[in-house]
Design brief:
91% helix, rod-shaped, single chain, mainly alpha
């Protein structure tokens, strides 16, 4: 029984000496720092992955845009060729044959290249949407990283200053980071 009272006196003395803070505050703060650091690592990984999505989406969008431009040049050349056929056919006695060939050429171009044009336009719009989505996720993950870093700093300072309210502020910052992390993950 005497050992138990001695231990209680030790705890009370330690409690008073630490400015009224709990005796295990440093341990709790250290665990808090470790947990927030794990969350920071996750947020950093997800941020990097979102950035990769942005870069890949921009690359695919640029490629589709180049293909669209190439397709439009092909259409312009084909239209020019059809016009040439009409002009050249005007000087020939059998011009109705040249005009028919010009119409046939324009029809082939329209049937073959115009759907490709439309498809590429849709592809570019889809890539823009994907890039915008990935950019938003990246921003949310970066904000989560900042919140976790602030939480780590506050929890670390709470160990040195022995102030429980700093640990509470670290928890609030970490909670904000978790919310931002979830927003980024659930963003569809």
């Amino acid at each position: 029984m005497e050992a138990h009272r001695s231990y209680e006196r030790f705890e009370q003395g330690h409690h008073v000496a630490s400015g009224g803070e709990l005796p295990h505050h440093a341990q709790l703060a250290a665990v808090t720092v470790a947990v927030i650091a794990c969350l920071l690592a996750i947020a950093t990984f997800l941020s990097n992955e979102a950035l990769k999505e942005v870069i890949t989406g921009e690359t695919h969008g640029g490629t589709a845009s180049a293909r669209l431009e190439t397709n439009q040049v092909k259409i312009d050349i084909a239209k020019g060729n059809a016009s040439l056929l009409r002009v050249l056919g005007a000087g020939i006695p059998a011009r109705h044959v040249a005009a028919a060939k010009a119409r046939e050429h324009e029809k082939r171009v329209f049937e073959h290249l115009s759907p490709t044009d439309h498809h590429l336009g849709e592809e570019i719009a889809a890539h823009r949407h994907e890039v915008d989505h990935a950019n938003t996720k990246h921003f949310d993950f970066e904000l989560a990283e900042v919140a976790f870093e602030v939480g780590i700093v506050l929890a670390s300072i709470s160990i040195i200053a022995r102030r429980r309210w700093l640990l509470g502020a670290a928890g609030a910052a970490a909670t904000a980071g978790v919310v931002l992390l979830l927003i980024g993950l659930l963003l569809v």
